[in-house]
Design brief:
207 residues, mainly beta, 9-stranded antiparallel sheet, 9 strands
């Protein structure tokens, strides 16, 4: 049985931004805003081991590449400008799983300062199957700006004291400094197009 409801208030509920989670990121690059107070966001993402343009047809544009790293993330809004998060990233081609814990504070708002500014800090635990485990700390400054909530620009600086991946050696530098950049076009409240990249500028993997 399908009942047709001719009520514009009910019909427009799916267009109301208040009925959707407050998304604080593009894909992996965060913007400065935080999850709403007492709201819980659950995110699932996958990261291919190979750049999608390397074998675009064979890898399905990166969506079905074999050596995927699956990320499971929970983020909870304590206050309207403060959130905490925990993430587990599966090993994929690496010999360790990654657990990340952080807090993010939305310090300045665009209504007063033209841009949104947030600071984020936390720790990373590299869980080795045969040990020993390792870890490190990280800090991030995030600056973002939205234009009428339809176009988003995000950037900042990210520092990690012990960056790692499967090709790092004992002679590699421990720390890494990167500049993440993201562009988002929100086509609808529930639909967006995103492009993002992170550029290593110092330390491990810098060029």
């Amino acid at each position: 049985i399908v009942e047709q409801i001719d009520n514009p208030q009910v019909f427009n509920l799916w267009l109301d931004p208040g009925n959707y989670p407050s998304i604080e990121r593009a894909v992996n690059v965060m913007n400065a805003r935080t999850t709403r107070a007492r709201a819980l966001n659950f995110l699932v993402d996958h990261r291919a081991y190979e750049a999608f343009q390397s074998n675009a047809f064979r890898d399905g544009l990166g969506f079905d590449f074999g050596a995927l790293k699956i990320g499971l993330t929970l983020r909870y809004g304590i206050l309207d400008n403060l959130e905490v998060g925990v993430q587990r990233l599966s090993n994929g081609p690496d010999v360790f799983d990654v657990y990340q814990f952080d807090a993010k504070y939305w310090a300045l708002r665009a209504e007063r300062c033209f841009v949104d500014v947030a600071v984020r800090a936390g720790g990373t635990w590299y869980a080795m199957y045969q040990g020993p485990d390792s870890g490190g700390g990280f800090g991030q400054l995030i600056v973002s700006r939205s234009l009428r909530e339809y176009l988003w620009l995000s950037s900042g600086v990210l520092y990690h004291s012990n960056a790692s991946n499967d090709v790092r050696t004992s002679r590699s530098q421990n720390y890494a400094l990167a500049i993440p950049v993201a562009l988002e076009v929100r086509l609808q409240t529930f639909l967006a197009w995103d492009a993002e990249a992170s550029f290593n500028v110092a330390g491990y993997h810098a060029k």
